[in-house]
Specification:
Blueprint: E1 2-7, H1 15-26, E2 32-38, H2 47-52, E3 57-59, H3 67-81, E4 85-90, H4 97-104, E5 109-114, H5 123-132, H6 136-139, E6 142-145, H7 148-154, H8 157-160, E7 165-167, H9 181-190, E8 198-203, H10 212-225, E9 229-234, H11 240-249, E10 256-260, H12 265-271, E11 274-277, H13 286-293, E12 298-301, E13 315-318, H14 324-334, H15 343-349, H16 353-369
Parallel strand pairs: 1-2, 1-4, 2-3, 4-5, 5-6, 6-7, 8-9, 8-11, 9-10, 11-12, 12-13
Helix pairs in contact: 1-16, 3-4, 9-12, 10-14
Length: 370
């Protein structure tokens, strides 16, 4: 069994955390075991599950506050435990300390993995990202991205042409999300939603990237025309109170349901009719794959990569600068689409976790042996 050190898991649920835990749950642990680095005062997301599955978690200083101490500690962990593969999951190139530490420790395979295609952190961090990404090949020798769009944002043209550049799909356990009419009815009953009601849904952290403010504007327009409709919002985050105030001002309190963070997202998707994702940017959103696996039509902003369009007749892109009426018409068009079992199509698209984990094991072995 080979142990791979995973860096980038945080104490908050999000895209990187979902990606890592999906692969970790399904990977053959007789062949590969994941261990983790924690820079946070709190436990990592899924910490109990990680430890139950045999993963080690190393507590280290935060590179935000103590970058030198962080690199010394991570370097020591890599050398003492003889990690040949260090997999660094990153949202930007602002902080390169994980790959620098892995390089200093002389890990054989140092993977930089891009999980985003843009940033909303401001001019200074955008500038640092643009400068730092040129230095990635000095420290990492393998380059992953969740989509080609994420790769283009994160790496130089030279890296993108490298034989060590790979797109790693944000895969899911698609069987878990298969459409189930019984679950749909039970979940709607639990949420007190009538059969006739059109349910729009969104899953994601309440932050600037997810563009909730615009989502509420869209729903407000849709509800004016089609009053038998509601919006489900799944997630937590720093902007949640602001969005609640917006909903209150628009007198949509009876129409917008805040469900906070949930462990039954697969079941909540069954209760929805249309999935909404008007994000300002994304790498390749895992929740978009989950929604398509459950057969829901998806209405996405055109900033999201077309690589997410796994189901040709179920995914629609609308411009963020398009009139609200165009969003309303697209949503309404989706209400006429039939919900069916999409398992075979998701498997064919390469986003089912069973095959993806086998491919990742093979890739780790290939990289280690080169």
């Amino acid at each position: 069994m080979k142990r791979v050190l995973q860096i980038g898991m945080t104490d908050n649920w999000g895209g990187i955390e979902s990606y890592i835990i999906n692969y970790y749950r399904n990977i053959d642990k007789n062949k590969v075991q994941f261990d983790f680095v924690n820079i946070y005062p709190n436990d990592l997301c899924f910490q109990n599950e990680i430890e139950e599955l045999g993963g080690k978690i190393y507590k280290v200083p935060s590179y935000y506050k103590h970058p030198i101490a962080y690199m010394k500690k991570v370097k020591k962990i890599i050398k003492e435990n003889k990690y040949e593969i260090v997999h660094c999951n990153m949202n930007s190139a602002v902080f390169l300390f994980p790959i620098i530490a892995a390089k200093l420790a002389k890990a054989k395979v140092v993977i930089a993995h891009s999980h985003n295609s843009s940033s909303d952190k401001g001019f200074l961090k955008d500038f640092i990202h643009a400068v730092n990404k040129r230095f990635i090949p000095l420290f990492a020798n393998t380059y992953f991205a969740c989509s080609n769009k994420a790769g283009k944002w994160f790496y130089s043209k030279k890296v993108l042409k490298s034989k060590r550049y790979y797109v790693i799909n944000n895969a899911i356990d698609s069987k878990k999300y298969l459409f189930n009419e019984k679950v749909r009815q039970e979940k709607r009953k639990e949420l007190n939603i009538k059969d006739s009601t059109t349910v729009l849904g969104h899953v994601g952290r309440f932050n600037k990237q997810k563009n909730h403010e615009f989502l509420i504007e869209i729903f407000n327009e849709y509800n004016k025309k089609y009053s038998d409709s509601i919006l489900l919002l799944v997630g937590i985050g720093p902007l949640q109170e602001k969005i609640k105030n917006q909903v209150d001002e628009l007198k949509l309190n009876e129409k917008v349901i805040f469900l906070n963070q949930r462990k039954d997202v697969n079941e909540l998707l069954q209760a929805m009719d249309i999935f909404m994702l008007p994000s300002l940017y994304e790498g390749l959103p895992l929740v978009g794959v989950e929604a398509q696996s459950s057969g829901i039509p998806c209405v996405l902003s055109d900033t999201i990569t077309d690589e997410l369009k796994l189901l040709e007749d179920k995914v629609y892109y609308v411009g963020l600068n398009s009139p609200l009426q165009e969003w309303v018409e697209t949503i309404h068009k989706c209400t006429t689409l039939k919900r069916i079992n999409e398992y075979e199509n998701i498997v064919k698209s390469g986003y089912d976790i069973e095959m993806s984990t086998k491919n990742l094991i093979d890739l780790y072995e290939k990289l280690r042996s080169e």
